[in-house]
Amino acid sequence: MADLGGSEKQEEVEQPWKVLEFYSGIGGMRYSLKKAGVNAKVVEAFDINDKANDVYQHNFGHRPYQGNIQSLTAADLDSYGAHAWLLSPPCQPYTRQGLQKHSGDARAFSFLKILELIPHTSQPPSMLFVENVVGFETSDTHTKLIEILEKTNFVIQEFILSPLQFGVPYSRPRYFCLAKRKPSCFQNHFLNNKLLWSPIPLFGHDDTTVADEHDQSQENWDRLLQSCEPVQKFLEFESHSNQSDTESGCLDTTHVSTEAFGDLEKNDKGNELVGSSLDRYIVPLSLIERWGSAMDIVYPDSKRCCCFTKSYYRYVKGTGSLLATVQPKKKGKASPLKEQCLRFFTPREVANLHSFPEDFHFPQQISLRQRYALLGNSLSIAVVAPLLRYLFAKPLVEQMQIFPSKDAYTHN
């Protein structure tokens, strides 16, 4: 009689991981799963934002659950039979600009509710992934997260990483928590319970001295920036760089008002902007006069730009970089800002810096302001994809046996 054990085991290994995607936004986590090459199926996504769900449905053909996830029960979560929970909860309770109320902020309640349900599920997830802003790791919500994961038999590894470390000229450091429920384990188990500032462990290296290194020296910073692609690789419009005459090729910003950054015109087709629409991204002179000294100005050959927040469309200090489309006549010599033809990065360019694929599009009804806001709440696929690949990878010891917790799941 033929031994069917091997084929059954192979069939088990090839089954896709079932994933729940909480706070799904415009689909950054799902795109990251795809880029990571993980054999996974999103059995449900959850988000309360109607516009974000419009974008998600437009790109994936599935509309996320839009009810209040605080109303979910342990039985509800068990019914999905999910092996992994991926969460990108609201960051406002933990940002430096916010009130920093942490778990006392109403926007943290739903995340806390999900965490509190874990011990009450009949089959807790085998893996859990959490993304948030830097600062979350010092919050009382983080303390609660670690406490619950340890009590429910998870091993944990934490990272603070930026797209700059992956060759993308985008300074957007974020906190990540990766957790596996025993007997599962990470490939680099010696990194358990450590906060890591390097992506090196994600690529199969076992150098513990480098893994938790937090080198902020100028030398290390310069080396990091040199490894990045220039900003121009992420632009959808060519810039007038190195002009001998700074006024040639520059759009007149004198009469451009902030109303130029309102909704997209009716004939706008998703990300495809008509040629004359570039003027909607020119920075008004009134903003330059008000915020010029605080603006982060970058050039097409720059190797870094600042994080774009959801408030980028109504520029204030710290909401994101502006692009100088005309560089100074002499390298290293600054020219007046009004002569540099400053413009906002377009939504497609912000999406490029978030590493969204070319086939990602906004549906036509999503306004320009809404696009910026949704992108500001999204995540870096260039960073999250390697983290998910690392999370879902099985050490050799696990590959030699059927994953214990995977057998027990059923989907009602």
Keywords:
412 residues, alpha/beta, seven-stranded mixed sheet, 13 helices, 10 strands, 12% strand, globular, disordered C terminus
Task: Please tell me about this protein's structure.
With 412 residues, the protein is α/β, with parallel strands linked by helices. The chain is 26% helix and 12% strand. It has 13 helices and 10 strands. It has helices at 5-14, 28-36, 50-60, 74-79, 109-117, 140-151, 208-211, 218-226, 285-291, 347-353, 368-376, 381-392, 396-399; strands spanning 17-22, 40-46, 84-87, 127-133, 154-161, 174-181, 195-196, 297-298, 322-324, 342-344. The protein has a 7-stranded mixed sheet with strand order 2-1-3-4-6-5-7, with helices on both faces. Strands 8-9-10 form a 3-stranded mixed sheet, with no helix packed on it. Helix 5 links the parallel strand 3 (84-87) and strand 4. Mean pLDDT is 81; it is low at 6-12, 241-249, 252-276 and 399-412.
Short description:
With 412 residues, the chain is α/β, with parallel strands linked by helices.
Order of helices and strands: HEHEHHEHEHEEEHHHEEEHHHH
> Counting H and I runs of at least 4 residues, what is the number of helices?
13
| Main sheet characteristics | 7 strands, mixed
Q: DSSP strand (E) fraction?
A: 5-15%
Shape: globular
Reconstruct the topology from this structure.
Elements lengths: L4 H10 L2 E6 L5 H9 L3 E7 L3 H11 L13 H6 L4 E4 L21 H9 L9 E7 L6 H12 L2 E8 L12 E8 L13 E2 L11 H4 L6 H9 L58 H7 L5 E2 L23 E3 L17 E3 L2 H7 L14 H9 L4 H12 L3 H4 L13
Parallel strand pairs: 1-2, 1-3, 3-4, 5-7, 8-9
Antiparallel strand pairs: 4-6, 5-6, 9-10
Helix pairs in contact: 2-12
